[in-house]
Amino acid sequence: MTSQPSAAGPAIVWFRDDLRLSDNPALRAASESGRPVLCVYIHDDGRDGQRPLGGAAKWWLHGSLERLGESLKQIGAQLHLFEGAAGDILPRITAATDAAAVYWNRRYTASGINVDTAIKQTLRERDVVVESFNGHLLYEPWQVTTKSGDPVKVFTPFWRAARALGDPDRPLARPRSINGYRWRDGISPAPVSLADLKLEPTKPDWAGGMREAWTRGEAGAQERLATFLESEMKGYAENRNRPDMASTSRLSPYLRFGEISPRQIWHAAHAALESGRTDAGRDDLDKFLSEIGWREFSYHLLFYNPDLSARNYNNRFDAFPWKTDGKALRAWQKALTGYPIVDAGLRQLWTTGWMHNRVRMIVASFLIKHLLIDWREGEAWFWDTLVDADPANNAASWQWVAGSGADAAPYFRIFNPIGQGEKFDPEGDYVRHWVPELAMLPNRVIHRPWDAAPHELRRANIELGKTYPNPFVDHDAARTRALEAFQTLKSAA
User: Fold this and answer.
1) Is the CATH number of domain 315-488 1.10.579.10?
2) Which of 64, 192, 317, 431 has its CB 3.0 to 4.6 Å from that of 340, i.e. a possible disulfide?
């Protein structure tokens, strides 16, 4: 026989990757339930079989939780933090507080779904109301299908099918006030402090560059969106590949932690264009929203391929002859490849926790195809160093570059880091910013310092092999080696 929840029991909102007040369906449901609202975040850190956050994402999470707690206080609620396996902690909180209902927004990793399903069953057996909502995507993965009802495997038809569903729902307003649940001393499990979670680095404190680059939290997300729409979206369709320009939205970490929703972005972007608050054109808007579509596609892939970060989507690549080369991997991680655009990107990543998307592709291609190192090594490095390390985008993007993913770039498409630098950083501004030891080189050789004349190197105070490394591998030789490795897959097919 199960115990009945108390008539005065609270409604619990379980925050996860939705650290915002506006357009939060779970928070809206709890606040409209007529019950006191208990706001909960449970730091799992891998205890329920989920992938632990990397260092940069933990740093971001600290600020997100801090801002969320402050925002909840302003409307009458309090954020209670817990540490442990959610499958254990949440049912205990529910029982200890006689909670009548639990609300959360869905997640799409296999481990997350399994935990949520088990908790939902446990609580419903106790006659607790449990409801989940879509607070993370424009459309649910199972809504976007082929005409025969199957998952879509190529982006263009995926996005066409998604758009055929119509515009996403309009975002929900931020609650003006909440009747927050008053936590009583002695309730077990006891909440912990934010400091107890040890999310921020201390010794050494490597997050200084990230603090300078970002304003974490929902307000920071809205400010970033407004700045992009009003002054940076113009020319997006043409300039989004230029790392030397403020040409991308930089909204990815806010989306990752749910400090802004894709619905909010979608409708705000349309409103900006229609109201004339932006000088961007329709092509800019469509291209920008199609990038939100790629995020949707990545989650679609993850939902139907739960081991996307660990296993080749295309199993032909299971036989690929990857090299185990610790020296090469370390040179790549430490931005010592000798190719300026690659090293600039990796330094931007280490300093700010973020890298321009075009440079991500160049950097990933270099690891996979110039060094023949398994894409999973790069995916793991990005998982630890990106503030926007996302379980869907990170894995899907690495597999796309490797050629092993859905709708992937062909393996034989090998980015030339010299040509890519000259095309997308034509004045060398991006390289000069992140690789300042090359700053005094002429534009003609900024992306190929080994071609600089001796007097140009002397004038720039560069000694190749000492102040800046020689290329770790020769591009032409590495390209030939990569194509030969790819041929082994063809012969084995």
Assistant:
1) yes
2) 431
